[in-house]
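Q: What would this complex look like in 3D?
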Amino acid sequence: MQDFINEFTLNFIDDNRYRYIAEGFVNTLIISFFAVLVGIAIGFLVAIIRSNHDKTGHMKVADVICRIYLTVMRGTPTMLQLLIIYYVIFASVNVPKILVAVVAFGLNSGAYVAEIVRSGIMSVDEGQSEAGRSLGLNYRQTMQFIVLPQAFKNVLPALGNEFIVLLKETSISGYIGLTDLTHGGDIIRGITFSAFMPLIVVALIYLLLVTGLSWCVNKLERRLRVNER
Amino acid sequence: MSDKILLEVKDLKKDFGDHQVLRGISTKITQGEVVAIIGPSGCGKSTFLRSLNLLEVPTGGSVVFEGNEITAPGTDVDKVRQKIGMVFQQFNLFANLSIKDNITLAPVKLGLMSKEEAEKRAKELLERVGLPDKAESFPAMLSGGQKQRIAIARSLAMNPDVMLFDEPTSALDPEMVGEVLELMKELAADGMTMVVVTHEMGFAREVATRVIFIDEGVICEENTPQEFFANPKNQRLREFLSKVL
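A: Here is my prediction, written as structure tokens for the whole assembly.
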């Protein structure tokens, strides 16, 4: 027991080393939160363009751009995307690393969100949008008030899953020298040469975060399902 | 019944690829008419009905609604559809909205009524279709017959000049067909212009002012219900009637 306390003190209390974890924790939260927002925005946009194109044949150019985006984002490792955005695209400009991470993870997540949302739009019966259009609502109104709310509800479990993946994926932020939660723990390991304590604590924090996130998504899911018997 | 022509269809054609579904249909529908359209399945009667509000875009011919050719390029289709109600076989109530919101959504979002007006109108319509206590329910909680009556109320909320019914009772359990037909009868009696694709020969006989038989994409026979059922002239119609009556 004394060993455990000594280990804990060495890794977190001495020299206020807990601050690496705290800083990493905050950064991980910031990156995840804003990347999710960026991902949702891009995802919905791409999904709407793609399903509009599939249905009407309009927006050919936009559809091609979306397809290229999806292919690249889903076809290359996230870590490489992060490195390329930091070392190549933003190489000559001085942007905060945290912004780079938000852009990289947001762009990456957007591709997955797009396909999830597109499957959601396809899952809504064609009759729903025909009924909307037959009343005189235009395409946008029909999407906004009828199709997308139902699509969102249908894909909420898949979206929740994507956000969990995204949260954990931010653990590669250390590769651009950003102190996220994982990197924070790793810095402590480098100083104290003890692996168990910092790594396990970091893992437990991720576990807690993911559990909390799942709980929120479940709660939202149940709330949206009250209208169905 | 006035002589005002609401809908005029001229040589309407529709093909899906190589498959010609409509091969030149022409007819006029005057105000106050109740036109029943019957025919074997796959004959094009639903496609014809859906062409009237351009849910299907015809590949040839034209549709004129209240004097305007709506098949002409540049037509504001959404505007036209506000005046043409449609009731579907599968009801298609908006699953994410309460019954009240199903009825008020279009009039409010299209700026035709204020929220208060629309809700008042929804209440009246729910009374009319006999479901005044369902305003706060959701579609999933209703029976098929109730859903279809709500769908009719939703259509009526737009104060349409004509209503299209696409096999409105075909997806219903037999014991619920009556309540929907009864409501449609009342609408007809109130002077609503209706075009009804149906398999209910009883309805066509009793309520329709004209019956049209479509087969293989053309109108084979149209007549008053009395003549239509008593003296069918077309050979295919006679075969069809002998199977369904």
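A: To summarize the key features: The radius of gyration of chain A is 22 Å. The mean pLDDT of chain A is 94.
Q: Very helpful, thank you.
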